Amino acid sequence: MGDVVTSGAAGRDAAIARAHEAFASGAFRETLARRVAIATESQTPDRAPELMRYLVEEMAPDFAAMGFRTEIVANPREGGPFLLAERIEDPALPTVLGYGHGDVIRGMDAEWSDGLSPWRLAQRGERWYGRGVVDNKGQHQINMTALKAVIDTRGRLGFNAKYIIEMGEETGSPGLREICEAHRARLSADLLIASDGPRLSAARPTIFLGARGGFNFDLWIDAREGGHHSGNWGGLISNPGIELAHAIACLVGPNGQIRVPEFTPEGIPDSVRRALADIEVVSTDGGPQIEPRWGEPGLTLAEKVFGWCNLEVLAFECGNPRAPVNAIPPRAWARMQLRFVVGVDTEALMPALRRFLDRHGFAHVQVAPSRETMFVATRMDPDHPFVRFAVASLTRTHGGKPAILPNLGGSLPNDIFTDVLGLTTIWVPHSYPACSQHAPNEHVPLSIVAEGLKLMAGLYWDIGDGLSERGAATAR
Predict the structure, then answer these.
(1) Distances in Å between the alpha carbon of 298 and those of 52, 294, 301, 366?
(2) 3-state secondary structure the chain
(3) What pLDDT, on a 0 to 100 scale, did the predictor assign at position 469?
(4) Which of 69, 203, 250, 329 has a CA between 20 and 30 Å from the CA of residue 151?
(5) Using an 8 Å Cβ cutoff, are 325 and 319 in contact?
(6) What confidence score (pLDDT) does residue 405 get?
(7) What is the pLDDT of residue 259?
């Protein structure tokens, strides 16, 4: 293990150097390559043995080597298993819960660029390619490596650590809420530190404090049985495609502004506006060009995506899109998605939608929530004491202030940690917006991996130093 340095700037620097050495020596890459090779596609039933293998062969031994007690717990619903791990150094010390998911989205093997495979880690230029390098195998591996660097440097963490690794996040985290409710005492902690999603940009470390909610619903019109000739019946019978398009247009304006009052909050809190004031949202390599005209008028780009809501059409079907015929179709259907922030009442969404459509002459449009899990919006106050603590730590390591996002633009099951376990939640992502995490050619820049190891080693060291002295009240 080498020399043990228990405190001070020298110890902090030594822990950071030890974490970086795991990257520089190739040890980190070797471990990640082994994990990428395990095809943990949670959407594919015959991959169930691989989900368990990831926990048994990779996670449990790594945690055990760091002095964690581990247990693999079956999913109470249909879905992948969970690994629970804990290292209790002193019950009087603060406790940090970590989280990650070892399952990945489908590999899409045939769609990767020549020479690349989702199940083989490959380097091209300054990037590593492979399914899971950012979502989420690489991200929780960065955090676990940083924890080990602190233990090896100090001889202890200086706080208690617990961890939960799930194997079903890509299918909506079935069973995660039930596991947290059933093991509430075992998972009790003062705060959550986890990594998922992208940074604001590849060059700027980021902290986000929650996630926008996600709610999918269907709209459809069943006008009649069968299609009817458009020449004989056009102008005499309604076209459900046209009517449904108008119904959607009444919900969201021509520039993307949401028109249903209950689908947006009353406003953006001052602390959120202050946090977003220095956030620059720009198009990245491989990403689409931003269109400033789109979205809620009067908001900055950062406020639109991190402080407000958006309503999208995910799919629209009418007739036979692949082989249109000269007939007025009998049916039209659309899948809609609302991304929403704290301040939107989820219980009011469907009743408000029904009232709004009825009031605008669309009582015949049918509505129903889709079968996907609804994610609840969460957001920590950017002025929270531990947020300031974490920002100071990352700033000290990086040399510049990280981006502070009150919530991620996307959705995560963060409400389980805030509402069920009552935790302060801090997310430090080790990815970037153009990483192709749910597409072919998923990749991570080497610079983000190297920097993420340093940032997390510094943060864990500082928690063992400063947070233990201040007590758990700082986190709460």
Answers:
(1) 49, 11, 10, 33
(2) CCCCCCCHHHHHHHHHHHHHHHHHCCHHHHHHHHHHCCCCECCCHHHHHHHHHHHHHHHHHHHHHCCCEEEEECCCCCCCCEEEEEECCCCCCCEEEEEEECCECCCCHHHCCCCCECCECEEECCEEECCCCCCCHHHHHHHHHHHHHHHHHHCCCCCEEEEEEECCHHHCCCCHHHHHHHCCCCCCCCEEEECCCCCCECCECEEECEECEEEEEEEEEECCCCCEEHHHHECCECCHHHHHHHHHHHHECCCCCECCHHHCCCCCCHHHHHHHCCCCCCCCCCCCCCCCCCCCCCCCHHHHHHCCCEEEEEEEEECCCCCCCCEECCEEEEEEEEEECCCCCHHHHHHHHHHHHHHCCCCCCEEEECCCCCECCEECCCCCHHHHHHHHHHHHHHCCCCEEECCECCCCCHHHHHHHCCCEEEECCCCCCCCCCCCCCCEEEHHHHHHHHHHHHHHHHHHHHHHHHHCHHHCC
(3) 47
(4) 203
(5) yes
(6) 95
(7) 98
Residue 4: predicted pLDDT? 73
Please provide the CATH number assigned to the domain covering 8-211+376-474. 3.40.630.10
- Distance between alpha carbon 247 and the CA centroid of its chain, in Å? 31
- Tell me the domain boundaries of the chain: 8-211+376-474, 213-265+309-369
pLDDT of residue 184: 97
d(CA 453, CA 451): 5
* Nearest CA among 345, 311, 307 for reference residue 216: 311
**CATH number, span 213-265+309-369:** 3.30.70.360
**pLDDT under 70: residue ranges of the chain:** 1-3, 5-7, 285-286, 467-476
Give residues with Cβ within 8 angstroms of 266, minimum separation 6: 343
Please state the pTM of the whole predicted model.
Answer: 0.89
